[in-house]
Design a protein that fits this description.
With 147 residues, this protein is an all-alpha fold. It has four helices and no strands. The longest helix has 70 residues.
Length: 147
């Protein structure tokens, strides 16, 4: 679509320029110039469309591919270098948690009533706008109806 519009605009803008230059420089016969003008404009339209497609679609993909390949190499190297360090800290943390008997399992004990109470407290304290608190209340009332 862009190439077609660009060609239409380019033809009307460049037609006088081509007509004048080709008449004066290359073609002395006026009839031959008028005959070849549509072919030259067609060639110009096709070449501009090709360049537009090349610069809009093909080159950005090639550049992105080159950047991605370089970044992947850096990331693989970083993983190779830091893997022992991450393993050491993970093991150290696990030993620390076992030594002090700290649970590593996350407990999600928060219910919708707890969230509703937090929203209400935020609305009363002025931290949460009334419209937001109202939307949260409506959401939780809909959730209760669905369950």
């Amino acid at each position: 679509m862009v190439a077609i519009l660009g060609g239409g605009i380019g033809e009307s803008a460049l037609k006088p320029l081509y007509r004048g230059n080709f008449k004066s420089l290359f073609l002395w016969a006026i009839g031959l110039s008028q005959l070849l003008l549509p072919l030259r404009l067609y060639w110009l339209l096709v070449s501009l469309s090709y360049l537009l497609i090349l610069f809009q679609n093909v080159l950005p993909l090639l550049i992105l591919k080159m950047v991605a390949l370089r970044v992947v190499g850096i990331m693989n190297f970083s993983m190779f270098v830091f893997k022992p360090l991450v393993w050491f800290f993970d093991t150290l943390a696990n030993v620390f948690f076992r030594l002090f008997r700290i649970s590593t399992v996350r407990e999600d004990g928060m219910t919708s009533e707890d969230i509703f109470a937090v929203v209400e407290a935020g609305a009363e304290a002025g931290v949460l706008k009334n419209s937001r608190a109202l939307s949260h209340r409506k959401y939780f009332s809909i959730c209760k109806r669905v369950q």
